Structure to design on (517 residues):
């Protein structure tokens, strides 16, 4: 049975995370909200830290919040310790860019490409950030709320 | 002697690509230098479509993701919405759901096994697996009137109770199931040609499998004990006694053997569920208009391909604000390139077979 990550962390580790600008929400979801520029540092700590060792990246997805910008959501899991956490990054509407986590979890490759393809979020440092599901010459990012669906001709 | 490398296109219309997958192969003679999967040929934009549909209208789309394990997909989506709404599912419905999901897992693995060995030339094995799978599809047909894309598991339970004689028919299938497994083991596991084609091929280490976010049989064949049913039991899975088959080497052979083991464990779960299943209602009191409270939730289940997750954002309206599906076959398919490198062209098809992609899910 997986447990809440925060219960496993020491005071010191928690304050380290807070020092990196994380907002911790331990109520049920175990949610960390991280500023984009600190994402890699936080992710690296979550992955390598003995108390958490989040060695499994479950999922990456993005949500369009309209004027409030985009949210990029990472699901992390520790196979060895059975703890989980959700990491969320909020980016502004006009500059949807987060650092890529492919260097930490190579499996993030296609997940980030999918989020880029459908939502138009840029993952800086991704080795091959190209469309994956749609045609290369497709215009726009369909999962954005302002995307206009065209009737078929 | 120097040879020039060349590109060979495989698919998207190719009988062994499990759908419309295209692989661009770079070859040096017969040796694979690169095998680049190109996906998206079956992309229907399900995530986008769901945003303009009401929750009951969204549910049939789940069946069409991994169409070989539809019951498991629907189970995952229903539990996601139920979790957000706080709906309590009746006991009997929980048991029926588990029975259906596990039977579906067996059927899906039979396709895996049949297509894998069929692609290696053992067409008899293919026919046997498909013949036996038909028995499970008959059971589904009896329960809900459909052989595939069932729309049987609904928000709050299942759409109707099991018909008269269903439990007996299911027990009859389980009685015959051991014989089926024996046939597979005699015919396929003991087959020298199949062993030569799969053993020691495309070895995936445990560390690499984890780093690549592989899941399901691909991950467990490398020896990583991660099964969502055990790691984070959903529904009533903590009531059943079952093992998680693990591989030791992480080669194509282990990926096949893990799936064979999973079929036996799934049958074990179904037997226990049939024994424990109580009488009672099969549908909770769910409002006619399904409007989950505003919020977001990530829920994942173990389907036949791996870790299937749903990320649902609700704004309190009758339509999902955003529904994202974490598709295990999509994530697993990334491994194709590195697993094929250095092996022969003839190995590409079985390696792809052991990754077990279903393009309906990969392309979403």
């Amino acid at each position: 049975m997986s447990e809440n990550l925060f219960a496993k962390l020491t005071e010191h580790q928690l304050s380290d995370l807070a020092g990196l600008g994380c907002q911790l929400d331990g109520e049920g979801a175990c949610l960390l909200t991280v500023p984009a520029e600190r994402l890699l540092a936080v992710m690296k700590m979550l992955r390598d830290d003995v108390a958490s060792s989040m060695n499994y990246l479950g999922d990456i997805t993005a949500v369009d919040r309209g004027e409030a910008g985009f949210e990029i959501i990472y699901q992390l899991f520790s196979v060895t310790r059975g703890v989980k956490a959700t990491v969320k990054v909020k980016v502004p509407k006009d500059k949807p860019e987060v650092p890529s986590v492919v260097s930490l979890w190579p499996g993030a490759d296609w997940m980030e490409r999918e989020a880029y393809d459908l939502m138009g979020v840029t993952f800086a440092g991704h080795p091959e950030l190209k469309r994956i599901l749609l045609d290369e010459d497709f215009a726009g990012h369909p999962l954005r709320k302002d995307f206009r669906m065209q009737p078929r001709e | 002697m120097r040879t020039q490398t060349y590109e060979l296109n495989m698919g998207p219309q190719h009988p062994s690509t499990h759908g419309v997958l295209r692989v661009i192969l770079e070859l040096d003679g017969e040796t694979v230098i690169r095998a680049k999967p190109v996906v998206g040929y079956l992309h229907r934009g399900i995530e986008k479509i769901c945003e303009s549909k009401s929750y009951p209208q969204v549910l049939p789309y789940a069946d069409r993701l991994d169409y070989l394990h539809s019951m498991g997909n629907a189970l995952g989506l229903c539990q996601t919405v139920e979790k957000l709404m706080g709906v309590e599912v009746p006991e009997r419905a929980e048991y029926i759901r588990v029975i259906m999901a596990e039977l579906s897992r067996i059927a899906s693995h039979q396709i895996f096994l049949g297509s894998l060995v069929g692609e290696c030339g053992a067409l008899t094995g293919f026919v046997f697996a498909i013949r036996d799978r038909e028995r499970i599809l008959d059971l589904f047909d009896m329960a809900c009137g459909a052989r595939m894309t069932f729309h049987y598991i609904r928000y709050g339970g299942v759409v109707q109770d099991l018909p008269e004689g269903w439990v007996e028919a299911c027990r009859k299938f389980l009685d015959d199931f051991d014989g089926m497994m024996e046939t597979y083991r005699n015919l396929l596991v003991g087959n020298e040609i199949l062993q030569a084609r799969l053993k020691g091929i495309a070895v995936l280490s445990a560390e690499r499998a984890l780093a690549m976010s592989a899941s399901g049989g691909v991950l467990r064949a490398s020896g990583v004990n991660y099964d969502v049913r055990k790691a984070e039991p959903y529904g009533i899975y903590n009531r059943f006694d079952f093992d998680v088959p693990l591989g030791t080497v992480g080669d194509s052979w282990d990926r096949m053997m893990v799936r064979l083991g999973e079929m036996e464990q799934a049958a074990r779960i179904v037997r226990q569920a049939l024994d424990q299943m109580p009488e009672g209602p099969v549908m909770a009191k769910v409002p006619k208009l399904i409007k989950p409270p505003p919020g977001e939730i990530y829920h994942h289940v173990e389907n036949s391909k791996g870790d299937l997750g749903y990320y649902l954002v609700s704004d309190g309206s009758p339509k999902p604000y955003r529904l994202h599906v974490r598709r295990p076959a999509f994530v697993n398919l990334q491994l194709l390139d590195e697993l094929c490198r250095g092996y022969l062209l003839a190995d590409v098809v079985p390696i792809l077979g052991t990754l077990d992609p279903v393009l309906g899910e990969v392309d979403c």
In short: The mean pLDDT of chain B is 91. Chain B touches chain A through 35 residues (CB under 8 Å). The two ends of chain B are 45 Å apart (CA to CA).
